[in-house]
């Protein structure tokens, strides 16, 4: 039996550099793992099927689920005859910009590698993960990374100084494909300073990291959902060092001064209707 945590991510920066021939967008993003996680328990099944059980009824536990698809890909790639039972406990909000589905897929790739003693390297697992989704290689490795290409090319950065993070997810779901499709570079005048963010992380300069948070997809998702700007403003009003939308949204994260301050911001945000609030921390890389 293997128990694996799939960690959520936030984007400290997200820049779109252009459209690619394969329909995806060329990106440059500094990604950061946070401790908020889903739990996946994997066991060899008695039969030769994939069995996925999820603790919430509203998420499809069938072949459309990224955890199921990751298990299928592992079985096909390595010729595994046994089936696998996957128990998924969901805590990361869905379609939130936090890479929850990717984290589950990554946990299944890693979990099956161990369960069936396949000996696949991180590089092999990342290459498989990239077939299922652009964020999966990052969620496999975690920590602080610069992601380029369509998000699958990774450069490890030193772990950023641990920060207390508040996540606020309004009750709207955002499709990543829709956000990229709707992106119009023309009116976007402010782009992330990716190299400066890298430098700030290398220098462990947490104030500068906060001052450089930037995401061009805010121009798409914030225009449609006014609640995102409200959440950003509220976080700043309650003293967050900085706040930003993560990924394609709609989740907004704020960097607090410490754990007590994060709780204070969270309490204020919980007064708002139709918002789920989580207090977490940045998570360090599990592999070096
Ligand atoms: C928004 C982010 O979460 C930021 O980390 C990622 O860029 C999205 O990663 P993801 O959810 O793993 O995305 P994928 O499952 O690979 O792609 C979903 C859809 O988003 C669009 N997409 C995604 C990544 C990318 N670099 N360019 C794109 O245009 C494509 O239309 C694609 O069909
Ligand atoms: N295991 C899973 N957990 C969550 N969503 C899943 C899973 N498998 C498939 N999905 C589908 O994937 C879609 C995106 O969900 P997810 O929570 O990964 O979005 P996200 O956080 O916006 O991802 P990203 O930040 O990588 O763009 C949802 O519409 C959901 O139906």
Straight-line distance between termini? 25 Å
In the predicted model, the low-confidence regions spanning at least 5 consecutive residues are: none
Architecture of the largest domain in CATH? 2-Layer Sandwich
Report the structural category: alpha+beta
Bound molecules: 4-diphosphocytidyl-2-C-methyl-D-erythritol, adenosine-5'-triphosphate
Radius of gyration: 19 Å
Number of helices: 10
Q: What would you call the shape?
A: globular
Order of helices and strands: EEEHEHHHEEEHHHEHHEEHE
Query: Helicity range of the residues?
Result: 25-40%
CATH third-tier fold name of the largest domain: Ribosomal Protein S5, domain 2
* Proportion of strand residues: 25-35%
Overall number of domains? 2
Largest sheet: 7 strands, mixed
CATH class group of the largest domain: Alpha Beta
């Amino acid at each position: 039996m293997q128990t694996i945590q799939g960690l959520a991510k936030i984007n400290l920066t997200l820049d779109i550099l252009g459209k690619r021939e394969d329909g995806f967008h060329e990106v440059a993003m500094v990604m950061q793992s946070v401790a908020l996680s889903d739990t996946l328990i994997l066991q060899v099944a008695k039969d030769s099927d994939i069995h996925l059980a999820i603790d919430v009824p509203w998420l499809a536990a069938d072949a459309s689920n990224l955890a199921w698809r990751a298990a299928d890909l592992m079985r096909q790639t390595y010729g595994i005859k046994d089936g696998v039972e996957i128990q998924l406990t969901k805590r990361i909000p869905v379609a939130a910009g936090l890479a929850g589905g990717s984290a589950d897929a990554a946990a299944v790739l890693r979990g099956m590698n161990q369960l069936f003693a396949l000996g696949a390297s991180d590089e092999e697992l990342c290459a498989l993960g990239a077939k299922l989704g652009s964020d999966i290689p990052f969620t496999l490795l975690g920590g602080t990374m610069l992601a380029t290409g369509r998000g699958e090319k990774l450069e490890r950065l030193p772990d950023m100084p641990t920060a207390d993070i508040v996540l606020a997810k309004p009750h709207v779901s955002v499709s990543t494909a829709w956000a990229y499709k709707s992106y119009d570079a023309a009116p976007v005048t402010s782009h992330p300073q990716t190299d400066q963010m890298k430098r700030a992380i290398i220098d462990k300069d947490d104030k500068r990291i906060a001052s450089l948070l930037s995401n061009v997809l805010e121009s798409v998702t914030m225009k449609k959902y006014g609640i995102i700007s409200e959440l950003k403003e509220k976080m700043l009003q309650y003293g967050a060092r900085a706040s930003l939308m993560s990924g394609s949204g709609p989740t907004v994260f704020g960097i607090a001064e410490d754990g007590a301050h994060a709780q204070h911001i969270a309490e204020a945000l919980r007064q708002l209707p139709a918002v789920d609030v989580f207090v977490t921390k940045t998570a360090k890389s599990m592999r070096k």
